[in-house]
Amino acid sequence: MKIICFYIHLLFAAAVSSQPWKAHGPLQVSKENPHYISHLDGTPFFWMADTGWEMLHRLNRTEIETYLENRKAKSFNVIQTVIISEFIHMDKVTNFYGDSIFVDENPEKPKISAGKNPKYQDEYDFWDHVDFAVETAAKKDLYLALLPTWGEWVTPRTDKALFNTMEQAYNYGWFLGNRHRKSENVIWILGGDRQPDERKNGIELWRAMAEGVADGTNNIKKQDGKADYTSTLMTYHSFTSSSKWFHTDEWIDFHTWGSYHAEVNNTTSYMAAIADWNLPNPKPTLNSEPCYEGHGINYAIDDNGVFTSADVRIAAYWSVFSGAAGFTYGCQPIWQFTDDTRKKHSPKAFSNWQDGMEMPGAKQVGYLKNLMLRFPLNELQPDQSLIISGQGDCANYIPAIRGKSFALIYIPSGGKPEIQLGKISGQKIKASWFDPRTGETTAIGEFENQGTRTFDVPGMSKELTWLKSGRGCDWVLVLEGMK
């Protein structure tokens, strides 16, 4: 009997430990390298998120299960989603089940009903549905990065603001933090496209909301401009890095920015990462709004075509190999969860979300995550001095990042770059090609770790061995030191 109980205990422990926050502790800025995120016990965390912005509004319980399971299988570990959507109208229902968020459009009065049984419409409210998403994500070992409200409702461009006073922002933030104070898989992302200073008091409103989230998480209610932020992980989402406004703020743990959807080969993907890397007292930084797969280039699908998986890969590798602590993927039909039964927020979405889950870029960014976790993230530093010749501009920009005994060099459009050896430890180096389209690695050979060496990229595929340059001919050169 004792043996049976012992094995049951082991099985239970294994099930619990699969949740990274239980196995390794909460997320924090790495103590060893402040450019990266780690767990409390030092285990590295490489951010790989999907933009499921409209999940809480458009999907039912079964669909949320389906979507999250698909993302888990593709190596995502974070889902970015918004509570007050950019597209809601305060006097209309706001989710699949016909629920409203607030009473009388008052952000200090969440519409909460007694009970939470989904079988009864008068019990299961909007906030129960949010809880379900958080709990379902946790069961699948996923973090949910919750945006309390899209930026439009704090810094409006087209509609009236919902939040007008610091008290409103604080109290709403407090409600959210307090409701999810025991949810170990919740990350907070304030903002939502809007620059915080687009409104005169915008920065103060966001700071008040951050204070409310932290106080609610700590079960303390005292709006005094101070809070204990050690129990939260927070950032701010906009197209300019949050470091512009909040770098020295105590509440913000890491920065985000976006290369967005205006152009292919958007150099923001690496320039913003480099700029944040070089800040004094740096924090982790992320491209959390890159070009979305299937999104119209410069928002015009008919004239310009759409971003493909090749564009996604370029944005991802440019960002990560320039010092970003991870990457956020986006897909045009998925962020809005459009299909034949749901109106398109963006009419140019050419697919439904069910098919969108299988677009190739989603699996390919998972290969990037797996590659990075092969190496100690705490050692990483961008190092362009590895590139002696072959460096290009626009689509041909080659970023390089290295640790003590390894280096990773992304070659986006083929060519024959000349690489400086001797930058990593080891008498010899082992070189290989990593294919960002398939995740496969092909050995090149072993060489003396000195001088320079030119590496000629292989053909794009087994069928196209002659095609070594141009769009889609991207490769990662992996160098590993040997004793």
Explain what this protein looks like in three dimensions:
With about 475 residues, this protein is an alpha/beta fold. The protein has 2 domains: about 15-380, Alpha-Beta Barrel (TIM Barrel); about 385-480, Immunoglobulin-like (Sandwich). The protein is about 30% helix and about 20% strand. It is built from 14 helices and 22 strands. It has helices at about 1-15, 20-25, 55-60, 60-75, 125-140, 165-180, 200-215, 245, 270-275, 300-305, 310-320, 330-335, 355, 360-370; strands at about 25-30, 35-40, 45, 45-50, 80-85, 100-105, 105-110, 145-150, 185-190, 235, 255, 285, 325-330, 380, 385-390, 400, 405-410, 420, 430-435, 440-450, 450-455, 475-480. The strands form 6 sheets. It has a 6-stranded parallel beta sheet. Helix 4 (about 60-75) packs parallel to helix 5 (about 125-140) and helix 9 (about 270-275) packs parallel to helix 11. The termini are far apart.
